């Protein structure tokens, strides 16, 4: 029989190893990679990967948003925001939410493969260092271990439990990303301990466990180098897994490398550096791939890239596609269809997740509610559910008002002021048509046409809703104000304004454009000229607080629902300036409480608020993140006591932003930040949350009180519900190292268990604590170390509500004095500092320290200078030149042992060796490098005996 004839352009599919599900993934990838031409490989380096038709390889797109449910593609189940999911302290529940989300992604993918890809961009595992961060709701916790645990759980649900990936989860955003202000040009400066103990610790578990298979770098720089060029991608991140890890850029970030960041002179150079640093996929220019790929071709032509570099990136991309089963005859997920989207099981899961996320912050006994005849449901969030930027489209909404109305009579009031605006020429009026129309100035056309509901979302951001048609005022593309929007929405929110005081009234400034509202031909429009702004008189038509007080007085109980709008004053691209409730909301709470002391404050927000007055006066306070489609039912379940409030805080709630360091200061150790190091008295501590049950802790037993680095401490404690009703308790175990060479956390979460106990029921909880987890990063030797020291176990219901303690000892090692002769002292490995910034020592790799001004210093504690060091050579750089002084034991008054003159250099990367003889340098001393000049950079110090 004749053999079949095959074309060299189309190999016999029977011989295609890459299509063999039984072959190892590496072999399949190697086979497919070997079949591709260089041009075909280049086509796979963009978010929109080009098809290779001759091999039957279809197009592929990275990036489907799935942070707390499938987003941006139409109605799908909306679960609580990520910060809310973490507040459940239930990793298994979070895994199930990820699993349900993955099913819905698959269903959309089967319906529209090009529109819904299976590489999902979730979860976000940036530790929530600062609650002012605009994207706070996207993360899980300020604790890196808890962040890693919850991120792994969600990613595990997304990827599924089979060898074939259900979806390919992508961790965001690597690395040290916690500010929106200047996010593309600011540098997050990370000393080695903060890098190793805090930032990397949050990312590692999901990659190491195989739950996540991809990573997205962040917009910012880290120690002066763009995160997209970080050597940590290849040198650290990819060592955590034996599998290929795909690295995708954030949207439009690659162009910043030669644009906003100006790190490279042109894009071919920048893109070559990015690929060599480990970037595999460019998310740039949307579906227009040619510009990006053209720069990569140019880089190849210039010799900035080799084909081997392209192969490495393509291998990572193909590995994910092979593992997704793209080239298999069939996958286990082929039967998933549209029926899974928002199915009853997912609705019930959304309700359960919302219920377990609800956190009872305060309760003077008013909750659970008895049998109120009438409830006043008040506030701007009382009868609405809001979508955030990464939220799915709500298939339906169960608001607080709707759910409470199912149980008893309700009265409702938004509690927002109704105002009128007028100029010297007349009133601002709105069209009463449902589609709206341009806002005009003229004679008052009736109370409805000239009235607007004023929403205060904090931070000076206001939104106006026309009473005429119930639509929000927006600015159209032509600059004309029109009442045609359901509310603040979209990436570029065009429905919010600031009110600036003027001598005769106020002017409105459009937040999105920064332009002012003016009157042109009787129509409200916007202008660049502040002098042309229309001066408006604000006339109060009806006080929202006063109306709410009247409504509250008629009810048995008042439930006031306040919080943030997820797209205003705290969102992607916008940080908060403070922690206060919006002023109008604060006044509303006070007015309602004055009218009815039986007031329950419900806060729905993606971040903490400083609700100091409410904590002092209001009987009960509840918080949850924006809770998704079933929020109202979950809230009603908790308010009426059908269910226990299952949430616990994963962030510290501070009393004021004054207690926080600068937003750009990422050194949590030096600034005493997060619950780990914070020494103040928080409003609500990390881990806080109350139950309707009452719990007693007893019989704390440690498996051993003397352990080695390879052992595991098991902490056992008995918890008893001494209350009259069932309840949930999160038993939390913390440790504190009591003696150390370095500054240690005051408390650190090591484990927990969530238990539900009936009245009178007891349970013994056992929490394992691997002693290896107690290690810290030793800057003197560049590795983790478990130190010989006394420790203390603290057990309780929060980081500050500790009921039982027990000591134990770790038989670790003692950190010796620094050996200054065996290897150079890298400047980045100092112990403490003042007045310096961390920077890149070279574009590709290495960190250094640069003085921000004269008098700056770094110190190396317990430097062993032996019987005497004769000289010191420093690797230094300065474009202006300068002077360094080496001192012992004190930066100002310590003994001077050497002075270094730094010559001027052409660029900051031109390091030279500048030396000094040493006098009196002997023994174990604290060695200070004092910068007498601004802009001097030190990379390393080398000592001679």
TrEMBL record:
All copies of domain CBM6, residue ranges: 823-944
Top-rank taxon, per record: Bacteria
Biased composition (Basic and acidic residues): 9-19
GO molecular function: hydrolase activity
Keywords: Hydrolase, Signal
Stretch list, region Disordered: 1-24
Pfam families: CBM_6, Fn3-like, Glyco_hydro_3, Glyco_hydro_3_C
The keyword 4Fe-4S appears for this protein: no
Coiled-coil ranges (or none): none
UniProt keyword annotation of Hydrolase present: yes
Family listed: Belongs to the glycosyl hydrolase 3 family.
Protein name: Glycoside hydrolase family 3 C-terminal domain-containing protein
Organism name: Microtetraspora glauca
């Amino acid at each position: 029989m004749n053999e079949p004839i095959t074309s060299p352009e189309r190999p016999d599919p029977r011989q295609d190893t890459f299509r063999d599900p039984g072959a190892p993934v590496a072999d399949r990838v190697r086979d497919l990679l070997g079949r591709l031409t260089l041009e075909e490989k280049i086509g796979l380096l963009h978010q929109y990967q080009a098809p290779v038709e001759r091999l039957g390889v279809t197009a592929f797109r990275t990036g489907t948003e799935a942070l707390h449910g499938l987003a941006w593609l139409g109605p799908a189940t909306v679960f609580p925001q990520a910060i809310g999911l973490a507040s459940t302290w239930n990793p298994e529940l979070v895994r199930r939410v990820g699993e349900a989300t993955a099913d819905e992604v698959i269903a959309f993918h089967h319906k529209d493969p090009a529109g819904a890809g299976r590489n999902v961009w979730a979860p976000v595992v940036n530790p929530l260092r600062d609650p002012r961060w605009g994207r706070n709701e996207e993360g899980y916790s300020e604790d890196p271990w808890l962040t890693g645990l919850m991120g792994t759980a969600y990613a595990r649900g997304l990827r599924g439990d089979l060898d074939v990936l259900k979806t390919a989860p992508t961790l965001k955003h690597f690395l040290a990303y916690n500010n929106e202000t200047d996010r593309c040009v600011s540098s997050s400066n990370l000393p080695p301990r903060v890098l190793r103990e805090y930032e990397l610790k949050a990312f590692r578990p999901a990659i190491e466990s195989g739950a996540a298979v991809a990573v997205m770098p962040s917009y910012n720089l880290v120690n002066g180098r763009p995160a997209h060029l970080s050597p940590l991608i290849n040198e650290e991140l990819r060592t955590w897994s034996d599998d290929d890890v795909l690295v995708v850029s954030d949207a439009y970030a690659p162009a910043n490398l030669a644009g906003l960041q100006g790190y490279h002179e042109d894009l071919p150079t920048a893109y070559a550096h990015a690929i060599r640093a480990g970037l595999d996929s460019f998310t740039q220019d949307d579906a227009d791939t040619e510009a990006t790929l053209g720069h990569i071709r140019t880089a190849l032509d210039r010799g900035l890239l080799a084909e081997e570099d392209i192969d490495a990136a393509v291998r990572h991309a193909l590995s994910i596609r092979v593992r997704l089963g793209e080239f298999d005859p069939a996958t286990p997920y082929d039967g998933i269809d549209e029926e899974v989207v928002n199915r009853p099981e997912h609705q019930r899961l959304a309700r359960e997740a919302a219920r377990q996320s609800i956190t009872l912050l305060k309760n003077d006994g008013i909750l659970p509610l008895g049998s109120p005849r009438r409830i006043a449901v008040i506030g701007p969030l009382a009868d609405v559910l809001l979508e955030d930027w990464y939220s799915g489209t709500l298939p339906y909404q169960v608001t607080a008002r709707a759910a409470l109305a199912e149980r008893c009579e309700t009265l409702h009031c938004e509690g927002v002021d109704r105002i009128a605006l007028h100029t010297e020429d007349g009133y601002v009026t709105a069209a009463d048509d449902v589609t709206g129309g341009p806002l005009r100035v003229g004679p008052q056309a009736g109370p409805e046409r000239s009235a607007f509901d004023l929403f205060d979302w904090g931070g000076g951001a206001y939104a106006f809703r026309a009473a005429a048609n119930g639509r929000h005022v927006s600015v159209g593309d032509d600059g004309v104000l029109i009442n045609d929007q359901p509310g603040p929405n979209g990436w570029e929110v065009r429905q919010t304004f600031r009110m600036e005081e003027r001598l005769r009234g106020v002017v409105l400034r459009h937040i999105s454009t920064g332009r002012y509202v003016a009157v042109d031909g009787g129509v409200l429009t916007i202008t660049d000229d502040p002098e042309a702004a229309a001066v408006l008189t604000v006339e109060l038509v009806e006080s929202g607080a006063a109306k709410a007080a009247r409504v509250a007085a008629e009810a048995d109980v008042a439930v006031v629902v306040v919080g943030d709008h997820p797209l205003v004053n705290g969102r992607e691209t916008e940080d908060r300036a403070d922690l206060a409730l919006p002023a109008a909301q604060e006044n509303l709470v006070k007015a309602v409480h004055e009218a009815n002391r039986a007031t329950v404050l419900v806060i729905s927000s993606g971040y903490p608020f400083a609700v100091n007055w409410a904590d002092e006066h209001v009987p009960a306070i509840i918080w949850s993140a924006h809770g998704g489609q079933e929020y109202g039912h979950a809230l009603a379940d908790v308010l009426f006591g059908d269910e226990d409030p299952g949430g616990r805080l994963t962030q510290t709630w501070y009393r004021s932003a004054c207690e926080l360091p600068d937003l750009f200061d990422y050194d949590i150790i030096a600034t005493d930040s997060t619950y780990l190091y914070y020494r103040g008295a928080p409003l609500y501590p990390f881990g806080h949350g109350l139950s309707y049950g009452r719990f007693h802790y007893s019989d704390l037993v440690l498996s051993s009180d003397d352990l080695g680095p390879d052992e595991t401490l098991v902490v056992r404690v008995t918890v008893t519900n001494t209350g009259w009703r069932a309840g949930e308790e999160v038993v939390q175990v913390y440790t504190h190292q009591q003696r150390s060479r370095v500054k240690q956390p005051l408390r650190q979460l090591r484990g927990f268990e969530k238990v539900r106990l009936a009245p009178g029921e007891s349970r013994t909880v056992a929490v394992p604590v691997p002693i290896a987890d107690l290690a810290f990063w030793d800057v003197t030797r560049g590795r983790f170390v478990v130190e010989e020291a006394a420790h203390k176990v603290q057990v309780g219901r929060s980081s500050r509500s500790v009921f039982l303690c027990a000591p134990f000892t770790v038989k670790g090692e003692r950190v010796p004095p620094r050996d200054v002769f065996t290897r150079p002292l890298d400047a980045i490995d100092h112990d403490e500092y003042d007045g310096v910034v961390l920077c890149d020592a070279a574009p590709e790799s290495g960190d250094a320290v640069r003085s921000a001004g004269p008098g700056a210093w770094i110190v190396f504690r317990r430097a062993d200078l032996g019987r005497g060091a004769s000289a010191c050579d420093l690797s230094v750089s300065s474009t202006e030149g300068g002077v360094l002084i080496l001192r012992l034991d004190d930066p100002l008054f310590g003994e001077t042992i050497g002075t270094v003159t730094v010559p001027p250099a052409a660029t900051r990367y031109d390091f030279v060796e500048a030396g000094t003889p040493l006098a009196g340098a002997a023994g174990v001393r604290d060695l200070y490098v004092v910068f007498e000049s601004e802009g001097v950079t030190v990379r390393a110090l080398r000592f001679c005996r």
